[in-house]
Amino acid sequence: xxxxLLLFALGLPILLNAQKFASPSIKPLTGVxxxxxxxxxxxxTHDSSLPKSFVGSHYSxxxxxTNQSFNFVQIGNTFYxxxxxxxxxxxxxxxxxxxxxAVWTTSDNKSxxxxxxxxxxxxxxxxxxxxxxxxxxxxxxxxTGWPSLGINGNSEWVMGHDATLGGFxxxxxxxxxxxxxxxxxxxxxxxxRRPIWGxxxxxxxxxxxxxxxxxxxxxxxxxxxxxKGIFAPWTYSRSTDGGATWSTQHILLPxxxxxxxxxxxxxxxxxxxxxxxxxxxxxxxxxxxxxxxSIDNGLTFSKTIMDTFEYAPYRDTQVFVGSPFxxxxxxxxxxxxxYKAHAFWGVTNVTKxxxxxxxxxxxxxxxxxxxWNEIDKKTTFIAxxxxxxxxxxxxxxxxxxxxxxxxxxPGTYNARQANFTLKDKSTATMQGARLTNTAxxxxxxxxxxxxxxxxxxxxxPVAGDVDDAFCNFRDIMMVCxxxxxxxxxxxxDITKMKGVEEDFACVAKKVNNYVHxxxxxxxxxxxxxxxxxxxxxxxxxxxNYIMYAAIPVSKxxxxxxxxxxxxxxxxxxxxxxxxxxxxxxxxxSSNSELLIxxxxxxxxxxxxxxxxxxxxxxxxxxxxxxxxxxxxxxxDSLAPGIYFYTxxxxxxxxxxxxxxxx
Length: 662
Fold this sequence. Notes:
The chain is mainly beta.
């Protein structure tokens, strides 16, 4: 990401970018009408055998004077650091038998315009992740971005947009987890238009795509079209033969028309598919937050307004009363086991105090997460930045900030500097970095288990954790519900790492005993693409890291992971070990690896016994950080045979079986 960052003012309204329009006024709604429309993201070990594939292994903790709290597993790397403009989409999947696949937009170098940009891929076979290269190469031979991931039969598919010509390129591997991929020609292309930013999901051979249009002012580049009175609308496409051909291409769904819409925007939509049910949600600054649902695999759709924008359709000369809450364009949606939709979005404010067409502003200092479900049809707030306003590290406090303000700072899209008054009446200049026109709390990603537990990650700047330019780093937060969305627990800080940024989290839709997620990590706040218009000279030589976490559901549900700053009582958590995988390979001859989760920083002992119960080998791992850890089991000195290994701390132990063979 960027080495230099932008200047900002806390709560400073930002003039809306001409390419970014839209969003609604969020009030808790009751009886929202159903519109029936048919049709259609240090090193602390003393043992050199541990691989340097954890979070923080690239950085020194002396920069901030604090240790990072959790370790995660690095599964990839990219010099291209923008994973989305708003909504994150589906880029990690929990597969049968505990396997996991993940994709991201990658580039293995930082050449101008990133000509090698494409899809990065890694696979967890329920035992270990594939060894990841220092810089992840792309799957495709052409420049792509914004991949969606899925399975069809016994193989995986990835579809990313063709960044040069538009349309979408599908890649397919020989079998689930295979490194043998083939890539076809672009589909859903259009003459004199550039469809990009796709969100694609499937039910077997039936594929559903929601996409938008690139709008370029460059010579000979296509402008975004106006369709049925909407500039750059999102469109829907459908394939019935596994994405080879598309019988429905780039249509506007019923109810998405100029009666309530003026323009669309990239990544301001999300999609989920469960059996024959398809749900699409969209929203932005100057439009309703709405859902389109099909129960017949995309043949017909009905529309529901989840939150109404009272000034729709937005016109340049309108004047707003007050500063209504609106959607920031980052959304996610999931379908539960009863085929009911649950939708989430980031919230900000928008103002327009005079009739000038350039007088529409939004306030990125807002930090709220909105939620709506198809059961009670009410919009509520389930998380806010104020819940993280108390700094857990007092030595890192920003002097003079009022207790009532969020101790986190937005930046601006353009370079900007401003002074504001602190509690001690002095003035200060603050800096921040942000992602295009999204809110402070942004990019929710949701997963759900079979027990009605819902887990939603989101990105939020953290009080007191700043880079050298005094820009706040972001952490990945999570909020959960234990009762299918009826009530919500206090949000928690999942990553909780000092001196680095975690952003662009994506949660696997299916949750087992673990919430599986990936995110992007970097040593500077913000993104090079958003804050420096792609100036590659400012990109760190280390690039950005794609990290994976398998977080125990029980630790999220009982609140003993991360920080829940609104709770006063202390948590007496034991140093429990969670075995995420069996050792791999197994059987093995020399070395095998084991992925575990630690609740707290602790020493770990690995003891190996033979079939008679005799201890034949021990290994000690010192001061392992909490979180995911890869332990290396050394078998060179062991005779062939069956053994039992015990992984233990001072309070807990787990025993499993393994085999050594030559």
